[in-house]
Amino acid sequence: MSDRYIKKILSSNVYDVAVETPVDVARSLSKRLDNNILIKREDLQPIFSFKIRGAHNCISQLTQVERDCGVVAASAGNHAQGVAMSAKYLGINATIVMPKTAPDIKVNAVRALGAEVILYGDTFPEAYAYSLTLVAESGMKYIHPFDDEHTIAGQGTVAMELLRQVQGDIDAIFIPVGGGGLIAGMAVYIKYLRPGIKVIGVEPEDACCLKVALDAGERVILSEVGNFAEGVAVAQVGERNFELAQKYVDEVITVTTDEMCAAIKDIYDDTRAVVEPSGACALAGLKKYVDREKAQDQTLVTVSSGANLNFDRLRHVAERAEIGEGREAIIAAQIPEHPGSFEQFCTALGERNITEFNYRYASDSQAQVFVGVTLKAGEGSAAPLLSQLADNGIGAVDLSNNEMAKSHVRYMVGGHANVDNEVVYRFTFPERPGALLKFLKKLGRPWNISMFHYRNHGSAYGRVLVAMQVPMADKEVFEGYLDELGYAFNEETTNPAYQLFLAPETH
Question: CB under 8 Å to 410, separation ≥6 — which residues?
Fold first, then answer.
């Protein structure tokens, strides 16, 4: 099987539209991690993503009859641009089905390349299903983003370039994983030519379709997929991709949203390029590997796979980068409610810098404060900070890994309300004009809304924290109604951030 793919990779037709991208040395990061860190810069492709390789190689294999029928693809962004650019170069009509939630920057880029864009559905599966309907009705050729031999081979040219560009020893190569096209193509080539190099896939913790499949020994469909790194937000790894990964991938590492934000900052610091979350995913995994293995003096390569980032998402990235790097902690601390207590709290912190402080009067005796604190070099977690505060008689809780605290509570600390039967839920719903109003209308049933927080993060999905007054006798009926809404949700009533800052005193 590997011989067949090697031949396809070596004969892949990608350079009509793609370029050979450089390998940059991440000098600052190399010094910090005590390893030689190299970055394969696929964010420098004409569409700012490696996807142009697989798309063009796949389309260029079509017969003239197939070309005359046109091509169709379903994509939220990068693959769509690759298909559109390739089709324009070859003079082929292209239709791209994108979910209505697709970022404007990607929709406009696809249209600018001459493709017809059809916005359909709120999610990629809906757009994909409609694209297959178009194939059945019109006879257009479907261009798959990852589960196609020609697509896989086109992506494999990244490895072909990389191993030619880096002649010395390479200990490991870290590759982002969505549907698996890039890692499948790269892994088969790397292991064929230099089998001693470790091939390590990296996925977001909430979109780890390859890791789950490898652990299970079969392809699995994830029930929910996180959308922060939309370029790798795939519910099921491709069939061909999984088969190749089983043979040629050494392991898969998962990373958090905050760790990807920190990696975006790392790449910016060394290259001045702002990559998308999926483009920094592999570097986040590399850093985790170095920490786990205590690796030193190794040559480690990461693929920066894309840079199609909406500008308004930078706010969220900047807020999370320091937490992801282990340089900042978010804590809830209890201090006495009397003059001078804040000064005493700052004194207890020692030389640490406060990055954020939220407080509202709640009682005559104790105050709960929501605080961001810079950690000292080498600490990596809030544990030493909490111990130091405890030594000064101050109790505190680490909220650095509490998603509700970071996405909502830090922006709404306001004190405890006097309400009965309050339950709290965190929702995500497709983000587009009017989406929030539609959500509120759907939620407007017999139960009263007692708290509401919404904040746009510049992504395809809105995030809402809602408290409702629901008597215990109604709880089962209420959750049944939430299921009918069709939005992903989590109950947060017992979340410590809610309990400390927002829950009714009698709760």
Answer: 330, 356, 358, 370, 372
pLDDT in tens, 435-461: 666 677 777 667 888 888 876 655 566
Q: Work out how many domains the chain is built from and give that number.
A: 4
3-state DSSP assignment of residue 315: helix
Pick from 259, 254, 250, 255: nearest CA to 212: 254
Q: Is residue 329 within 8 Å of 386, Cβ to Cβ?
A: no
476 burial (CB, 10 Å; 0-12 / 13-18 / 19+) is exposed
Q: In the annotation, is 49 catalytic?
A: no
Residue 101: is its pLDDT beyond 90? Answer: no
97 and 81, same domain (yes or no): yes
- Outline where 340-468 has alpha helix (H): 341-349, 383-391, 403-407, 435-443
Question: Of 49, 86, 305, 450, which is the active-site residue?
Answer: 305
Q: What is the CATH number of the domain that holds 424?
A: 3.40.1020.10
Report the C-alpha gap between 195 and 189 in whole angstroms. Answer: 9
Is residue 380's pLDDT more than 80? no
What's the distance, Cα to Cα, between the start and end of the chain in Å?
62
Catalytic residue selected from 8, 51, 211, 287: 51
Residue 458 Cα to chain centre, angstroms: 13
- Is residue 106 annotated as part of the catalytic site, yes or no? no
Beta-ladder partners of 491: 425
**Is 69 within 8 Å of 140 (Cβ atoms)?**
yes
pLDDT, residue 85, reads: 96
Closest CA to 388 of 342, 333, 326, 328: 333
CATH code for the domain of 122: 3.40.50.1100
pLDDT at position 435 is 64
Residue 466 lies in a domain: yes
Residue 98 in domain: yes
Instruction: Give the Cα separation of 171 and 169 in Å (integer).
Output: 6
Yes or no: say if 482 and 425 are a contact pair by the CB < 8 Å rule: yes
Residues 15 and 153 in one domain: yes
Q: What DSSP designation does 418 have?
A: -
448 falls within a domain: yes
> How buried is residue 286: exposed, middle or buried, by Cβ count under 10 Å (0-12/13-18/19+)?
buried
- Per the listing, tokens 């020609």 go with 150
Contact yes or no for 75/47 (Cβ under 8 A)? no
What domain range is 481 assigned to? 417-501
Dump pLDDT digits (tens) for 227-238: 788 888 888 999
Residue that has been written with the tokens 């998402």 in this structure: 313
Contact 400, 496 (CB under 8 A): no
Residue 409 located in a structural domain: no
